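Structure first, sequence second, as always.
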C-alpha cells in the first residue's frame, strides 16, 4: 500500500469527470487499498480517486468514530437511485480544500447501487453522516467540489484563501 499526494483546489484536475470502471481486478483493488491508506493518513472520512489524479469512479469511505474499529467502505461505480425529500444542512469540509468548511443542504437519506471490493453488486440505503459523505464523494466523480454548491462570492473567497496558503508554502 502507498500514501499518495492529494490534489488541492484550485486545480483543473479536480474538474475532470471520472469514468466507470470496467472490471474490479487486482489493479483496481490496489488503487482502493492506496486510497484507503491515503484517506486514513490525511485523516479524512472519504476520498475519491480523482483527488489522487485517477479519473475512475472509485470512492473509499469510513465514518466510524476514531476510537472504534475501522469500517471501510469501497464504492466502485456508485449510482444514487433515490434521494429523500428531507433536506439536512451540515458543515462540510474536503481534503482537497484543507481547513475550509461551509454549511450545505443535501438530501438526508439516499439509496445507491455500487460494486464492492470483490466486484459484487450491492445496494445500500443510508442517512446521516454516511449519506452526506457519499454524496460529497460522488460530486467529486462529476468534477464538482462542495464549494461549487455555494455562491460565486463565497466560493471565490475560499479558493483565493487556498491559493494564498499554497503560494506561501511554495515560497517558504
Ligand atoms: Ni472532498
Amino acid at each position: 500500500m502507498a500514501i499518495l499526494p492529494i490534489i488541492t483546489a484550485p486545480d483543473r484536475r479536480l474538474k475532470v469527470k471520472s469514468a466507470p470502471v470496467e472490471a474490479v481486478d487486482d489493479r483496481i483493488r490496489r488503487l482502493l487499498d492506496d486510497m484507503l491508506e491515503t484517506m486514513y493518513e490525511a485523516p479524512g472520512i472519504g476520498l475519491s480517486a480523482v483527488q489522487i489524479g485517477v479519473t475512475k469512479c472509485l470512492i473509499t469511505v469510513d465514518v466510524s468514530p476514531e476510537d472504534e474499529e475501522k469500517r471501510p467502505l469501497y464504492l466502485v461505480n456508485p449510482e444514487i437511485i433515490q434521494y429523500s425529500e428531507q433536506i439536512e444542512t451540515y458543515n462540510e469540509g474536503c481534503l482537497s480544500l484543507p481547513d475550509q468548511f461551509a454549511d450545505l443542504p443535501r438530501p438526508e437519506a439516499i439509496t445507491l447501487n455500487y460494486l464492492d471490493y470483490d466486484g459484487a453488486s450491492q445496494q445500500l440505503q443510508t442517512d446521516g453522516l454516511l449519506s452526506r459523505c457519499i454524496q460529497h464523494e460522488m460530486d467529486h466523480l462529476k468534477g464538482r467540489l462542495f464549494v461549487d454548491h455555494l455562491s460565486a462570492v463565497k466560493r471565490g473567497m475560499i479558493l483565493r484563501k487556498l491559493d494564498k496558503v499554497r503560494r506561501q508554502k511554495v515560497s517558504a
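Margin note: The mean pLDDT is 96.
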